[in-house]
Amino acid sequence: MSAERPHVDDEVDEELVFHLQMVARELVAQGWQPAEASAEARRRFGDLAYTANYCRAQDARRDQERRCMTFLTELSQDVRYAIRSLRRTPGFTAIVLFTLALGIGASTAIFSVVRAVLLEPLPFAESDRVVRLWAQKPVNDVQEGAVSEPDFLDWRASSRLAQSMGGFWYADGGSGVDFTGDGTPARLSAALVTDGFFETLRAPVLLGRTFNADDQLEGRNRVVVIGHALWRGRFAGDSSVIGRTARLNGESFTIVGVMPPAFTYPSDAALDVWIPLSYFGPGSIGRQRGSRFLQVVARLAPGATVAQLDGELRGVAAQLAEQHTANEGWTSVKVLPIRESIVGDVQRPLALLLGAVLLVLLITCANVAGMLLARTSMRERELAVRAALGAGRTRILRGLLTENLVLAAAGGALGILVGSFSVRALLLRGDIVLPRNADVGMDGSVLAFAVVLSLAAGLLFSIVPAWRATETSLGRALRAGGRGTIRASGRRLRNALVVCQIALAVVLIAAAGLTTKSFVRLLDVDLGFDTDKAEVVGLSTPSDTDDDEARLVYYERIIDAVSAVPGVTAVGVARDLPMQGTGEMVRPSSHATLSGEQRELHAHHVSAEYFTATGIPMRSGRSLTLRDRAGSSLVVVVNESLARRFFPGEDAVGQQLLFGETPVEVVGVVGDVRQRGPAELAEPLLYLHVHQSFRSRMSIVIRTAGDPTSLMPAMRNAIWTENPNQTLTFVSTLDDILGRSVARPRLLASLFALFGLLGLALGSTGIYGVLAYSVSQRRQEIGVRMALGAAPQRVLERILSQGMRLAAAGILIGGGRWP
User: Fold this and answer.
1) CA distances in angstroms from 422 to 105, 186, 739, listed in the order given
2) Pick from 710, 635, 619: which is nearest to 670 by CA?
3) Cβ distance 369 to 167 under 8 Å?
4) Which residues, 6 or more positions from 142, have their beta carbon under 8 angstroms from its beta carbon?
5) By mean pLDDT, which of 255-259, 443-447, 608-612, 650-654 is the weakest?
6) DSSP H/E element including 602
7) Among 134, 349, 394, 466, which residue has the fewest nearby CB atoms (within 10 Å)?
8) What are the φ/ψ torsions at residue 664 (nearest 5 degrees)?
């Protein structure tokens, strides 16, 4: 159309000149002189240049509208023709849509996870200025140690680069309070926080307020901030909940605030309540320098950097280590942006998964491109006829691209359904232990990604086939009759696409093999205890049981009731289960030949039958017994690692450890347990009898003769028979606990295996498509060969060798960098 513009402009000028001439002739007829008539005609007409430009603009607008309408009409024709063409080949269409749905669906599902975990902003104001702080002990290679409350207070008072600082204590699955007096008793997940916690995070409150400094004062700390899920569930979303009371641990707390659904920190999932740390007095949580339990967050002051705050707090930590014996060795601090602290350990796995799914998408595009090349070669006569009837190359190319984009759009729609189903299935597994997994789902940004991905994939797999289709020679295509033709360049391109598919699939299979091998090795690790036929029930003593002796009696009643359930063979209790807690840090004062750092140990509080219930083997000496009670000589059982460290070359049984001036006798040695999980080495541990060192929150381990899940109702009833109001923190099996501890590597291995198999299936489909097309095109040739005496076996070998060569080339290219 642009070539017509000068002609149109000339017509506008001619029309204006003709109009002026006609007016001038009329004036001459009335007696005007020709020159004066021309001038008068121009005067009467007005601004000639403006009128000319206006006419040209109107003409250009109409021309643009006409071209737009023409384009839309042609596009509508192309879409209708594409739909009819695809309906004529239902088998081809179904295979392409299925392939695209798998590739786009897998990409969409993984992107939804990556977006929620890595890309979504944190629910904190100016989250880039919020950091996490840890104490470090370089001599013991402790990189992320908890902080004692006195150290936290000193850090906050000494720092000039931290605008605010707050501490919290939260143990996933292990911290909580009993909620009673308003419906069914329940165990609520709880975080204990200091003043400065909410100020540092600056999370917007949904209703009411968060804590202030006065809420930490004794007598004023019976206040609570509740989570959105608890507010919606227990309080029916009542906006007048502020000021109401809630019974927690048997005491009345005033609800002062409700948090929005996005704020669950420090939990990855929903958190029920936040309580002032001061509510649990020094008797419940140690406030000494050596009692390290706090996690710390801080907000950088304006202009301050992470490196500057790190340097400042390192100096503070070094001074505290010199001033206080309990801080010996704790000479450094680690400062990390809060986003990195939340998602740091999953960034690499998710990046690998995203890379794997992009390889699957590339294989998908190569597969579809190969099928389209085969299809367009079969349509050469049709395209040649269209060209002979006057369709230009651009028009034909646009029609083919439209047809392929229709395929991509339909495949994208199916891919969105597949991705949505995949995300839902992933979340329903229940063992997806990813940070911020509550935010994983299909939303507007994920749908936009799927749409853009579909269009990009459509362009990627359709450009080359469409371009090659328009290169067809008109005469050659018409001479070929109804048959498609085979060109050497076309065969080479299709073969190259198949080789690329196989190479990418080999890379995926290799990655899947490596991750699966690592996961299998992780499962083969000797944990040191037996997870089979063992159930675990978490509970805490009722708040009205106010002394250790009464709590012990209560636990003994529960243990006796559970032990009486038919099928139960052993019942033990522990403060921290394997893979669910590291115990408390203790520091024996004996063995001066060892450095102070070597004497710091993890202590676990267990009952007499704990080792039998968990299957931890006794190596020497005896276990703890009911004779080891308060008032009798203090005893301890140690593991093999501790025995080797403290008593090398000696029998540890009968030896003594000193804690201050108090001697504690070692009465037994048990096998090593990987307390932190299968991926962590066993550490020196000692086990204290709960009768001599009681803790109010315990877990009951129950070993059964048969399937423990079948006995769960009976064991619950046994506990509730003793106390109908007893809340159960959790009910699980040791197998389930082990499963949760390896959930991330299992998820990574299973997804890589899935993508590897998917890539292999798509690559195999590509080989099949090339061979099927080749055979269909060579049917006449094969018939002639067999008529001339070629054996069927020889013809079959020739065809199979073509596929084997393609597969071998892909394997060599894809596996060239793998050992």
Assistant:
1) 8, 33, 21
2) 619
3) no
4) 135, 136
5) 443-447
6) strand 601-606
7) 394
8) -130, 125
3-state secondary structure of 680: coil
Sign, CA dihedral 636-639-643-649, equals positive
How far apart CA 311 and CA 309 sit, in angstroms, is: 5
Q: How far, in Å, CA of 542 to CA of 84, rounded?
A: 73
SS3 190: strand
Rounded average pLDDT over 210-233: 88
Which pLDDT tens digit goes with each residue over 787-819?
777 777 777 777 777 777 777 877 787 766 544
C-alpha 677 chain-centroid distance: 21
Nearest to 151 by CA among 285, 284, 290: 290
Is residue 445 pLDDT above 50, yes or no?
A: yes
Does the pTM surpass 0.90? The reply is no
Segment 130-166, tens digit of pLDDT? 999 999 988 777 788 889 889 999 999 999 999 999 9
The alpha carbon of 376 is separated from its chain's Cα centroid by a whole number of angstroms, namely: 41
Contact 621, 669 (CB under 8 A): yes
Cα–Cα dist 315/131, whole Å? 18
d(CA 404, CA 225): 56
Whole-number average pLDDT of the chain: 79
* The two three-digit tokens of residue 426, written as one number: 């992933």
Q: How many residues does the chain have?
A: 819
What are the φ/ψ torsions at residue 721 (nearest 5 degrees)? -65, -35
Check if the beta carbon of residue 260 is closer than 8 Å to that of residue 228. Answer: yes
Give the CA angle between residues 796, 797, 798 to the nearest 5°: 90
The distance of Cα 628 from the centroid of its chain, to the nearest Å, equals 48
Please state, in angstroms and rounded to a whole number, the distance separating the CA atoms of residues 46 and 40. Answer: 10
| Backbone φ and ψ of 580, nearest 5° | -130, 15
For residue 793, the Cα-to-chain-centroid distance in whole angstroms is 52
Which letter does DSSP use for residue 256 in this model? E
Distance CA 354, CA 360 (A): 10
Contact 300/469 with Cβ under 8 angstroms? no
**How many angstroms separate the CA atoms of 350 and 421, rounded?**
19
Across 154-168, 567-581, 760-774, which has the greatest mean pLDDT? 154-168
Quick check: 610 and 572 in contact, CB under 8 A?
yes
Whether the link from the prior residue into 663 is cis, omega within 30° of 0, is: no
Residue 225, phi then psi, degrees to nearest 5: -105, 130
DSSP symbols for 92-161: HHHHHHHHHHHHHHHHHHHHHHHIIIIISPPSSTTGGGEEEEEEEEGGGTEEEE-EEHHHHHHHHHH-SS
Distance CA 655, CA 652 (A): 5
Q: What angle do CA 422, 425, 427 make, to 5 degrees?
A: 110
Are 635 and 667 within 8 A, CB to CB?
A: yes
Q: Could you tell me whether strands 273-276 and 186-193 are parallel, antiparallel, or unpaired per DSSP bridges? A: parallel
